[in-house]
Amino acid sequence: MEKSLNPKVFPHAKRISLVGFSAGGQVVERYAWASSVTKSDADSEVETIRYIVSDPSSHLYLSAERPAPGCIPLYDSGYSTSTDHTYCSIFSSSSRVVPNIDTCSDYDTWKYGLTTFEDTTTYSYFASFAQDDTGDLVESQTKKLRSKDVRFLFGSEDTCNCNSAGYSNPTTDTCYPTDSDGNALSCSPNTIDSNGCCDTYPGSTSNELSTSCGSELQGYNRLQRGLVYMSYLKWLWASHDYSPSYSIIDGLAHDAETMYRSDILGTWSFSDDDDQEEIEVKEDVILVSLNGAAKPNARGSASTTTVQSEQHPSSVSASAAMGPDNIPAWFLLLSVMAGVAIAAYLRLAVKDGNNVASHVPEKVRLIGAI
To answer: Which of 7, 61, 163, 191 is deepest in the core (most CB within 10 A)?
Structure first.
């Protein structure tokens, strides 16, 4: 990120957009909290640093409280038709309110929370947080997050769960997809339903929704976890009149291709006007795209589309394996990837494991994709 803000490296960059889907969304969400870099940290022309998180399997809670059971039923609770779509207002760290919280010893350990930062030998970038006995550094990072431009995207049909005991899946083609001959697809692992249950389709036929106790205290499907987290952020920062920025894409399951093609994602990545119908790229944009559940990879991967402005041809590309419960060395990954690209348009499709551009403005030249 520091390199991206260096005007000698990218002198014309106006915007940095970090976009993550699925496990990539988990990376971007955690990085948004942990990064101390702001647009004012360098003598650059960057005016906007935006983090876009789409359909992650879990979220980073900023305090020890978790939603009450009534907020996270064992079925697709959908979303409210009210303006803000959120519905949970009870969060607590007491086992009297959240019965399973005492039996999940690591529910507030990173990556689910901020109480404990483990394995600082492997992940040395956690050392400063782990050694923060006063909690001042963690509190400072959390305060900074409130002023950062972090946005969330959720699919209205990303509601399947094939491995949490007692969960009742909606009987839809999303959770029970079939092939062209009408035969049920085989997705695994599947411990609760013998009828071909899939919880990461069409992104993958490997069921990747996290069912750890830390994840299940947040909810039982990706949409539910996401909307409850939006409620949580409003609850946590109610005294600051905070309202998270998010959108729900109607009819979308765990589908990176459709997510990346969506108008809202393109607009958020390259414009400050959420209502404009046509996106015109008028400035150089550094784009980092991470995809966590792309066909045909079972475990997911970080995908980088490398694009560049005709006027500024230097670029770097990188990729790394990444699973939803195992995000290895992601600070290092992000620091490499943040210098990847200049001036792009996000209309990307994930196809056969690669990102391809369905539309790129004339001023931008696509030079490669991983």
So the answer is: 61
Distance CA 357, CA 54 (A): 19
* Model pLDDT, residue 219: 96
Q: Residue 338's closest CA among 23, 110, 20?
A: 20
Give the pLDDT confidence of 46-75 residue by residue, as tens digits.
788 899 999 999 999 999 999 999 999 999
Predicted confidence (pLDDT) at residue 286 exceeds the cutoff of 90: no
Query: Rounded CA gap, 250 and 268, in Å?
Result: 17
The CA-CA-CA angle for residues 286, 289, 292, to 5°, reads 165
Instruction: Give dist(CA 90, CA 305) in Å, integer.
Output: 41
> How far from chain centre, in Å, is Cα 87?
21
**Side chain identity at 191, as an amino acid letter?**
T
Condensed to tens digits (0 to 9), the pLDDT of residues 255-272 reads: 998 999 999 998 998 876
Tell me the pLDDT band of 287, cut-offs 50, 70 and 90.
low
Query: Region 319-323: what's the mean pLDDT?
Result: 31
Q: Which candidate, 271, 264, 279, 281, places its Cα nearest to that of 365?
A: 281
| CB-CB contact of 120 with 126 (8 Å) | yes
Checking if the pLDDT of 10 tops 80, the result is no
Residues near 116 by beta carbon (within 8 Å), at least 6 away in sequence: 106, 108, 109, 110, 130
**Beta pairing partners, 337:** none
Which DSSP helix (H) or strand (E) runs through 15?
strand 13-21
Question: 254 is written with which tokens?
Answer: 């765990």
Contact 98, 67 (CB under 8 A): yes
**Residues in CB range of 94: below 8 A, 6 or more apart:** 101
CA distances from 112 to 105, 118, 148, 217 (A): 12, 12, 20, 10
Structure-token match 């402005």, residue found: 309
DSSP state letters, 161-215: -SSSTT-B---STTTS-B-TTSPBP--B--SS-TTT--SSTBT-SB-----SHHH
293/304 Cα distance (integer angstroms): 13
Structure tokens at 77: 């609770």
